[in-house]
Amino acid sequence: MKQKHIASRMSGISPFYVMDLLAQAKRLESQGHDVIHLEVGEPDFPTPDLINAAAIDAIKSGKTKYTAATGLPELKAKISEYYKSRLGASVDAKNIIITPGASGALQLALSVLVNSNQNVLMADPGYPCNRHFVRLLDASARTIAVGAETDYQLNHELIEKNWQPDTAAVLIASPSNPTGTLIDAIEMQKIIDVVKQRKGVLLVDEIYQGLVYECADFSAAMLSSDVFVINSFSKFFSMTGWRLGWLVVPDDYIEPVDRLAQNLFLAPPSISQYAALSAFDNETLAILDARRVELNNRREFLLKGLQALGFVISVKPGGAFYIYADVSKFTKDSFQFCNDLLHESFVAVTPGIDFGEYKAKTHVRFAYTQNIEKLQLALDRISDFLTNYKH
Ligand SMILES: Cc1ncc(COP(=O)(O)O)c(C=O)c1O
């Protein structure tokens, strides 16, 4: 069938190359091969039991209807308490909007803030969906190449240099996907100030909050009440499939964000919200904190292993569960490299082109989402693969 009614904006929406790789990996698995998955951004940990049990209770007691568009008040209160007890941050429950994942939060915030023909500054490499959310608004992503010299992050100087009269907002993520690198509180404050001076809006994606390994965690919400903060139950809370996140919204924007949330989503998933009320119980938090320790062990293990094999990791990732590695020593085409690695050695990793254009063909992302035994096996296979690799 001819797809003659597809809107022209769809030409700006590129696929996730890793999904294609994942489909190939599944095919190989169905043929009996044992593929080690280091490509998708979700660890092997199950959702903690108390959260699962709360979901079952919610279903059994009929809590399966729409909630308020901006989410359950008791969940907002729990998130607010969590900011206070974990980070010492004052975030009022009224400023918290519950969303379908960080994805919903990003779409909601950008849609409220960005006019068509405006642009949003963001890092390349960066989380790819952001460019597409902006494209759907007939606005554009102004991607800025970032390298090891700025820890693969935007900083206030780059923002100043790239600001245009039609720039509406800046979107940053700390820790970042795909690099796992952080923006510290001093630099974050400078970024907040620069964006404020230019009368723009700053959005900070903190979806990997809680997964920071070498320094104290903080939130941009602690530095300014003008920032939009994006967060989620997907990563630290091990709830990817529950599709639940949140947005911290400055006072003046609560009403329009609520209005758009009503229209876009009606409500975030109710069962997931009732389940998430148990995400902040001490028993659950203890499990999640132990997982952070495990992820840190994996990080150190995989970093050392990859470096020993000749991968160049210019900045040690301080958070999330990703290692962004330079493979220029082995190939000029990291997409082909990932394909070959999958088909010859059954290890799946993500090619740089999923995250932008800058040096994308010479980088790949490893997600340390498997246990140390599997990581060791992956390293052994990669080692064999590299011995014979013709590029
Ligand atoms: C930086 C970043 N933001 C947002 C998302 C979307 O997450 P979710 O919608 O599952 O909360 C992801 C998912 O990997 C991500 O890496």
Key terms:
globular, about 400 residues, binds pyridoxal-5'-phosphate, about 40% helix, alpha/beta, 12 helices, 2 domains, single chain, Aspartate Aminotransferase, domain 1
Plain-language structure description:
This protein has 391 residues and is of the alpha/beta class. It folds into two domains: 141 residues, Aspartate Aminotransferase, domain 1 (Alpha-Beta Complex); 232 residues, Aspartate Aminotransferase, domain 2. It contains twelve helices and twelve strands. The strands form three sheets. The protein has a seven-stranded mixed sheet, with helices on both faces. Strands 9-12-11 form a three-stranded antiparallel sheet. A two-stranded parallel sheet has the order 1-10. The chain is globular. The mean pLDDT is 96. The site of pyridoxal-5'-phosphate (PLP) has 13 residues, from helix 4. The site of pyridoxal-5'-phosphate has 13 residues, from helix 4.
Q: CATH topology of the largest domain, which one?
A: Aspartate Aminotransferase, domain 2
CATH homology superfamily name of the largest domain? Type I PLP-dependent aspartate aminotransferase-like (Major domain)
Poorly predicted regions:
none
CATH architecture of the largest domain: 3-Layer(aba) Sandwich
Order of helices and strands: HEHHEHEHEHEHEEEHHHEHEEEH
Helical percent range? 40-55%
**N-to-C CA distance:** 39 Å
Name the overall outline: globular
Structural class: alpha/beta
Bound molecules: pyridoxal-5'-phosphate
* CATH class categorisation of the largest domain: Alpha Beta
Strand order of the largest sheet: 2-8-7-6-5-3-4
- How many strand elements? 12
Question: How many H/I helices?
Answer: 12
